[in-house]
Design brief:
The complex is a heterodimer of chains A (about 325) and B (about 300).
Chain A lengths: L8 E9 L4 E10 L3 E5 L6 H8 L7 E6 L2 E2 L4 H7 E4 L11 H11 L4 H14 L15 H13 L5 E5 L7 H17 L3 E6 L2 H7 L2 E6 L2 E7 H4 L2 E9 L3 H10 L4 E4 L2 E5 L5 H18 L3 E8 L2 H8 L1 H4 L6
Parallel strand pairs in A: 3-8, 3-9, 6-7, 7-8
Antiparallel strand pairs in A: 1-2, 1-4, 4-5, 9-10, 11-13, 11-14, 12-13
Helix pairs in contact in A: 3-4, 4-5, 9-10
Chain B lengths: L6 H4 L17 H17 L6 H28 L11 H26 L3 H5 L5 H34 L3 H8 L2 H24 L5 H37 L1 H12 L13 H8 L3 H25 L3
Helix pairs in contact in B: 2-6, 3-4, 3-6, 4-6, 4-8, 4-9, 6-8, 8-9, 8-10, 8-12, 9-10, 9-11, 10-12
The chains are: A alpha/beta (about 325), B mainly alpha (about 300).
Chain lengths: ~325, ~300
């Protein structure tokens, strides 16, 4: 089967109604192969969506297809080809990582000898070495997250579902985990759907993103589309940024302060107008005698997307 | 080892990530169920786990074996076909051991996965909810066979070897083999299903353990007290509804050992005679109890939220 022939996931009016709340309210969407970020505040429906795609939870109405299989009727076929790393603690305490991952590899259909080999390789790959023979009960959060990733990866799935994979990790552990996820997506040809409420993570590892809010699809698309070069000039000075802002406003140019950085809005289109504005900025800095640190064309971040387009969203999504 | 640094380059890889893709066979659902069964069975006997579970499981299995060992040993000393315990009485002798084993193991088998929250990892693999249950029941039933079947076979073999004329003895007693097999299997499956069905309604180990003990052991004591009070009709109903009675009575029926009439009501065999029911009703009761427990267990796991 050609991986490019069909979308990774196809949703059509997907709805999930729990007795008390509506978790998903009619999502229609096609998700391409690659590393996909599923973003939204806690309780937006990210975990529910993953569970429906795994065939663990039945949708109330609408359809969901994963790798061309219907999630409702062909759950077994899907689960043969995907790996799942749940958000919460899900490991036994009285088995070693090796024992447990071997066992789950066999549950995914790997013959016994292959299961042993691949468990050892996968645990090494996620960075567990001699520790893997010890009981999981004594592991740190970071090590447990690695075991959770290893069990999802051990049978070489076509698609990985990672639910908040960096949950509870310290900054170093977080970087390691994101590095692993990125390599998994790019070097091994495994598609990844990862959920996160941290935009910075999505931006650093994902090719595309899906934003859901209160069970509705807010937007979806390539991350590059949201993070292209912006029309903002960032000017960093060592002191008195307000002076420059006031000067800009006096010249009818939009500008605002963000810490020690002044963001000056560039005019659309015309290159000469841009150059003229840059010259104005430089002249003003010199004129005001401000110590200039940096002058750069600013890239959009996912955070801007919320700040500019949808003020209501930024309050809920924790931006990094 | 001189070319350690070159090896990755020669394979065209910048650095070794310890990860390879896999194109080999994937054995699917039945293999997955079997793997879960094997692991669960090993867990029951504490294999791959700490010392305490091993001591508990093998300890109880050994105690269940003691009457058989004594029977064979005394038989060898006292000569011809001495029987301390007869086959149809064996479960009566070791009843409490079997029930303790079920109570301890059932709360482990289904409780650990709930307490550790490992179910999402199982159910995101190519099995269905009922498959999980099937593997767990099969594992506990198999483990129970080591307490119900093994001692009985030991008694059988011991008696055979102790007989003066082995061939003649075997000819007379060979039909006991299917009786031993049938009664052990029925009892093991019944207790496994009922024990697991009860244990899966709570994640708390102590609570699961006491509930199983209550359902399988205290119910026997309770019914036993009631029998004389109730009179034959209602006593029969109470006995049919009690797992321990259904199990023992089924064994008597299979070995054709129900007394013709009840002398005193102290012994369970006499109480069964007192109920004065056709033999097949006991077997039906055992099967029905198992089916009801299975129904609730299946329903429980289909509804479990992940």
């Amino acid at each position: 089967m050609n991986a490019g022939a069909q979308p990774l996931v196809r949703l059509s009016s997907l709805t999930k109604q729990y007795p008390e709340v509506a978790a998903l309210r009619g999502i229609t969407l096609e998700v391409p192969h690659g590393v996909v970020g599923l973003v939204g505040p806690n309780g937006a429906g990210k975990s529910t969506l993953m569970k429906i795609l795994l065939g663990l939870v039945e949708a109330t109405s609408g359809t969901a297809e994963v790798l061309g299989f219907d999630a409702n009727t062909e759950g077994l076929r899907i689960r043969e080809q995907v790996g799942y790393m749940p958000e919460h603690d899900c490991l036994p305490t009285d088995l070693s990582a090796t024992q447990f991952v071997i066992h789950l590899a066999r549950m995914s259909g790997l013959p016994a000898t292959v299961a042993r080999e691949r468990a050892a390789e996968t645990l090494r790959h996620v960075g567990l070495f001699e520790e893997r023979y010890r009981h999981i009960g004594g592991y740190s959060t970071g090590m447990k997250q690695r075991v959770k990733l290893a069990q999802a990866l051990v049978h070489d799935p076509k698609l990985l579902f990672l639910d908040e994979p960096t949950n509870g990790l310290d900054p170093d552990g977080r970087d390691d985990m994101l590095g692993l996820i990125e390599r998994t997506g790019t070097d091994f040809g495994i598609s990844v759907i990862m959920s996160s409420h941290l935009l910075g993570e999505i931006e650093s590892v994902c090719d595309s993103l899906v934003l859901i809010e209160e069970g509705r699809l807010d937007r979806a698309g390539a991350v590059a589309k949201f993070t292209g070069l912006g029309n903002v000039l960032a000017v960093e000075v060592d002191r008195d940024p307000e002076l420059l802002v006031n000067r800009m406003i006096a010249h009818d140019v939009k500008a605002r302060v963000d810490g020690r950085i002044i963001e000056v809005e560039l005019p659309d289109g015309s290159a000469t107008a841009e150059v003229a504005l840059m010259r104005l900025v430089v002249d003003s800095v010199v004129d005001l005698g401000l110590p200039l640190v940096r002058l750069a064309r600013q890239r959009h971040t996912l955070r801007d997307m919320f700040r500019n387009d949808d003020p209501s969203a930024s309050g809920n999504v924790e931006a990094v | 080892m001189a070319n350690l640094g070159e090896a990755p380059q020669s394979r065209g890889v910048v650095y070794d990530l310890g990860y390879r893709n896999y194109d080999g066979p994937r054995l699917g659902r039945r293999y997955a169920i079997r793997s879960l069964y094997v692991l669960s069975l090993r867990n029951t006997f504490g294999l791959g786990r700490g010392t305490l579970p091993k001591v508990l499981a093998f300890g109880l299995a050994l105690i269940a074996l003691l009457p058989a060992i004594f029977t064979v040993a005394f038989g060898a000393l006292a000569g011809e076909d001495f029987e301390l315990v007869e086959h149809h009485e064996y479960f009566g002798f070791i009843g409490i051991v079997i029930v303790l084993f079920v109570a301890a193991m059932a709360s482990d088998l289904v409780g650990n996965d709930r307490r550790n929250n490992t179910l999402p990892l199982y159910f995101s693999r190519p099995i269905e909810r009922d498959d999980y249950l099937l593997a767990k029941i099969a594992a506990l039933a198999t483990a129970l066979m080591s307490l119900t079947l093994v001692p009985q076979l030991l008694v059988f073999v011991g008696n055979w070897l102790g007989a003066t004329d082995g061939t003649e003895w075997l000819g007379d007693n060979i039909s006991d083999i299917w009786r031993i097999g049938a009664s052990s299997t029925l009892a093991s499956v019944q207790l496994a299903v009922i024990g697991l069905a009860i244990a899966m309604f709570t994640t708390r180990r102590a609570f699961a353990l006491t509930s199983v003990l209550a359902a399988l052991w205290f119910s026997v004591v309770f019914t036993g007290v009631l029998v004389a009070v109730l009179g034959p009709g209602w006593a029969a109903v109470a006995m049919l509804a009690t797992p321990g009675y259904a199990m023992n009575a089924t064994t008597y029926v299979i070995f054709d050992a129900v007394p013709a009439r009840a002398d005193r009501l102290g012994e369970m065999a006499d109480q069964v005679a007192y109920a004065d029911l056709p033999g097949w009703t006991w077997i039906v009761a055992l099967v029905a109890q198992t089916a009801v427990a299975l129904f609730f267990a299946i329903r429980r796991y289909r509804k479990v939220t992940l």
